[in-house]
């Protein structure tokens, strides 16, 4: 798929809760997290003491076009500083910390973040290091714990994946679950007269081809065929396509070539006739 679904002609969705990455080890993961943010309408990134320094070329490569998020990212020396203006923060962790804090899933966190931000509060989702996650002290700086129903024996998620899951739930909460596009409008449903005409066409073609080998079974076979098409809810366009398919099978390759040649000959005759008339009219006018 060209562009993997990107479309620069459409407006860029921005906003959402702050995404805070605490001491990310690799620029690759920062870039991948920024890409996930861009996918789901999150645009505000804060980075706490990145291990490979900042800015980072690898981050830009892995952002895959989400450069504006990296360009506007803010750098902080520690989590306390990154949370200085935040009213409510969710600490993401896969481990039980023995703290008297609410533990909620990404969907509930997204819904709460949405309502708090609508009330004017600044909200942050805090993600820890790739290898060790958030330290317990850092979790204690946050108001609630966000975790996911992962495999207890293998609970470590890639940083960007964790951001993507949280971002997906945020996007659903923000949009009310609306999908970005819907199926195209269908052609109007065929009325019974059109449907019966197709049945006549199909059954005649099948009869001619010798499909109904047993006269006794032909009526029940016809009923089964009609019921198949009734269940499909065919549109007028569907019937036009089916008529064309049956006609092509009736004619075969030689018949289609002959009809094409006949149509071309008629078109050429009309063109020649039109030219002669035009010449004559020109002569009369002169």
| CATH class category of the largest domain | Alpha Beta
Q: Spell out the CATH superfamily of the largest domain.
A: SPOUT methyltransferase, trefoil knot domain
Q: Please tell me how large the radius of gyration is.
A: 33 Å
CATH-scheme architecture of the largest domain:
3-Layer(aba) Sandwich
CATH topology of the largest domain: Alpha/beta knot
Question: What percentage of amino acids are in beta strands?
Answer: 5-15%
Distance between the first and last residues' Cα: 61 Å
Shape estimate: elongated
What ranges have pLDDT less than 50 throughout 5 or more consecutive residues? Answer: 275-286
H-E string: EHEHHEHEEHEHEHHHH
For the secondary structure, the number of strands is 7
**Overall residue-averaged pLDDT value:** 90
Number of helices: 10
Going by helix content, strand content and strand pairing, the class is: alpha/beta
Main location: cytoplasm
Biased composition (Basic and acidic residues): 250-263
Catalytic activity: uridine(32) in tRNA + S-adenosyl-L-methionine = 2'-O-methyluridine(32) in tRNA + S-adenosyl-L-homocysteine + H(+); cytidine(32) in tRNA + S-adenosyl-L-methionine = 2'-O-methylcytidine(32) in tRNA + S-adenosyl-L-homocysteine + H(+)
Function: Catalyzes the formation of 2'O-methylated cytidine (Cm32) or 2'O-methylated uridine (Um32) at position 32 in tRNA.
């Amino acid at each position: 798929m060209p562009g993997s679904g990107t479309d620069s002609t459409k407006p860029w969705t921005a906003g959402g809760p702050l995404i805070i990455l605490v001491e990310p080890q690799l620029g690759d993961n920062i870039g991948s997290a920024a890409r996930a943010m861009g996918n789901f309408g999150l645009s505000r990134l804060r980075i706490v003491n990145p291990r490979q320094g900042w800015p980072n070329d690898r981050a830009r490569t892995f952002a895959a076009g989400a450069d504006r998020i990296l360009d506007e990212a803010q750098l902080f020396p520690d989590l306390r500083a990154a949370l200085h203006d935040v009213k409510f923060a969710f600490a993401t962790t896969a481990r039980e910390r023995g703290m008297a804090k609410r533990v909620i899933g990404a969907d509930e966190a997204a819904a709460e973040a949405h309502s708090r931000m609508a009330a004017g509060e600044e909200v942050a989702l805090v993600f820890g290091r790739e290898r060790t996650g958030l330290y317990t002290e850092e979790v204690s700086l946050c108001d609630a714990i966000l975790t996911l129903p992962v495999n207890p024996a293998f609970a470590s998620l890639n940083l960007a994946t964790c951001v993507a899951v949280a971002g997906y739930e945020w996007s659903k909460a923000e949009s009310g679950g609306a999908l970005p596009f819907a199926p195209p409008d269908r052609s109007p449903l065929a009325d019974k007269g059109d449907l019966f005409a197709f049945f006549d066409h199909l059954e005649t073609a099948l009869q001619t081809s010798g499909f109904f080998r047993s006269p006794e079974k032909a009526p029940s076979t016809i009923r089964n065929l009609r019921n198949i098409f009734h269940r499909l809810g065919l549109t007028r366009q569907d019937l036009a396509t089916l008529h064309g398919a049956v006609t092509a099978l009736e004619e075969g390759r030689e018949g289609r070539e002959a009809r094409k040649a006949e149509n071309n000959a008629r078109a050429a005759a009309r063109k020649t006739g039109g030219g002669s008339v035009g010449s004559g009219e020109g002569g009369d006018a002169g």
